[in-house]
Structures are given as C-alpha cells and as structure tokens.
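Following the same procedure, backbone shapes were mapped to integers, yielding the entry below.
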Amino acid sequence: MSSIPNSGRGRMSGLILEYPMSLGVFDKYDDAQKAVDFLSDREFPVENCMIVGTDLRQVERVTGRLTTGRVALAGAVTGIWLGLFVGLIFALFEPSGDAFMTVLWSMMFGAVFALVWALIGHAMTRGQRDFTSVSQVVATRYEVLTEHKFAQRARDLLAEAPNGPGATAYTRPAPPQGRPPAPPPTQDPPD
C-alpha cells in the first residue's frame, strides 16, 4: 500500500503508518474490528494499527415517493423552524414587549416563504427525481495494517485466535514463484 502524501501533515498524521504491512483482508468490518480487539486484549500496541476500507461503492436507499404535498410540508416545517429562530432574535430587541407576536409572525412568514421556495424548486426538476433517498459510501473489504516492525508479532498473535477473527480473513494471494513473465513482443517501426 502506498503512503498518503504529507501535504496536510497536521490533519493526516494520525492516518499514516510508516511502512505499513497487511495483517489480513476481511469481508466484514466486524471481523477486522475483532482482529484489532484480539490484538488489544493481548497487549499489542494497537495504536500502530489501521483498518482501511477498500473497494468503495456508493449505496443509495430509496425511502419513498416525493410528492408535491411532501415537498410543501417539508418546506413549511423548515420555514417554521427558521422563522422561530429569527423571531426569537427579533424578540430580544423588541422595545414594545410584544415578543410573542413577533415570534409568531416570523414563524408564519418563514413557513410561507419556505413552502413557496420548496415548491418552485420541485417544479424546476420537472419530475426527474420524484423520490427521496439516503446514500452512504460503504467498503466491500477491510484491510488491517500495522507498522512493519510489529507485523510479525501481530501475525503470531492472530494465529493463536481459535475460530476467531483470522478464520474469516481473505488473504492476498502470494506472488507467483519462478520465472518472471516474458515481456510483450515489440514491433519494429515500418520503413
């Protein structure tokens, strides 16, 4: 694995290992977490470990239809909350002492404004996205890495785990032994 450039050293310094070595690749995050927890229980310096999610993909879960009524309701609720916030700020500086009416009017204006704004935004999509959803980036595999100077000790400890975290690990295939592959043939340029 290549190391991350040190351009944001202060922010990224906790995410960099010096010469990281793989302890295993797991299909589930829970298995990778169990491996690190197993090492921690054996007093291994786990601050020298890292779990890296690989083969990332974005998953979007459709949660329902997006109707004009739902858009209007969501806009109105958002406007009420914003109006409440603005109304409370205005009420702090209200000289006449009628703070309740200031807050109430701010909430009503906020509801109407946000409702109209949400409906205009929905109408401009012209039905191209009439559904609601939530999305998340998830990893397909999780690799546990450690500093090179601790790798053998970590492997020895993980080998002791009976039916534990190392049992479900997917390990990388070893590089082929023997002769290196022949380079592709080259063609002479035409005369």
